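Input record, target 12 of the design panel.
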């Protein structure tokens, strides 16, 4: 009768065995230590060096455990390689970080699953985007504020500084002593009422999410549509990235040197709202 082939033992079996083995080794070493001390105190039996056998036992057990760990790691490496080869023949989602799927029973996968709110961990998408928001200005605008490129939240809201944690609108409200409003129409009226034009430096670029540091292949906006209509006397850039991009692409065309203001982004947490408002006083001065 042909013997039934045994299923191959995977690395998870070895790691589980090691996790059970270590406390058992410690317990047995403790029992050996107790027994050794008990026999050493017997007057009718020859004494033994205190702790010697227990130490020898732990040394041997540790070497065995180390060998098991090395074997388990080799198995894990082989399993990953095999899984990657198997997955190449099947279609994978384009945004999947891993070439193979980690079993959902593992702690790592559960942690990733929890932190991504049930969504598979994905590489942030980098794609060519075009500026979706028209500039805000009229013939009475005196100052022009330039950001870098709309964030994900701003692109969704189809208006500037749509992220609720961005302090741009709160800073301007503090400067002029009135609420900027909630809707795009209210915010537009607020800007025009105070002679402020608003746009961004970049017309199109490749960007990863909302990270300005990931901007590549940038093409600048044509500011002549604003400068030929409004009497712009001051240009301010919101943050160092916008300032760097303006100087690279637009300053020679406009002939106006921009003033770099501290970013109102939530990433610039070192600047409080009061510090930002004080630093942005130049906008109010230029607009009046």
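The sequence produced for target 12 reads:
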């Amino acid at each position: 009768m042909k013997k039934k082939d045994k299923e191959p033992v995977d690395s998870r079996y070895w790691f589980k065995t090691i996790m059970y083995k270590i406390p058992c080794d410690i317990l047995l070493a403790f029992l050996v230590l107790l027994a050794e001390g008990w026999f050493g105190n017997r007057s009718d039996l020859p004494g033994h060096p205190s702790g010697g056998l227990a130490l020898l036992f732990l040394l041997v057990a540790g070497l065995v455990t180390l060998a098991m760990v090395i074997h388990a790691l080799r198995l894990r490496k082989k399993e990953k390689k095999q899984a990657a080869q198997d997955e190449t023949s099947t279609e994978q989602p384009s945004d999947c970080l891993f070439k193979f799927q980690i079993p959902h029973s593992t702690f790592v996968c559960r942690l990733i699953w929890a932190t991504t709110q049930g969504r598979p961990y994905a590489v942030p998408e980098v794609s060519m985007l075009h500026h979706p928001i028209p500039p805000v200005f009229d013939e009475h605008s005196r100052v022009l504020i330039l950001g870098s490129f709309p964030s994900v939240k701003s692109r969704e809201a189809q208006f500037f500084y749509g992220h609720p944690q961005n302090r741009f609108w709160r800073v301007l409200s503090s400067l002029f002593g009135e609420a900027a409003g909630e809707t795009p129409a209210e915010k537009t009226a607020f800007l025009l009422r105070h002679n402020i034009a608003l746009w961004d430096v970049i017309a199109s670029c490749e960007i990863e999410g909302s990270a300005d540091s990931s901007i590549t292949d940038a093409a600048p906006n044509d500011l002549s549509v604003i400068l030929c209509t409004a009497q712009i006397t001051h240009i301010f850039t919101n943050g160092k990235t916008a300032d760097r991009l303006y100087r690279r692409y637009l300053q020679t065309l406009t002939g106006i040197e921009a003033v770099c203001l501290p970013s109102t982004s939530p990433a610039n947490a070192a600047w409080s709202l009061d510090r930002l408002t004080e630093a942005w006083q130049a906008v109010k001065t230029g607009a009046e």
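The chain has a mean pLDDT of 78.
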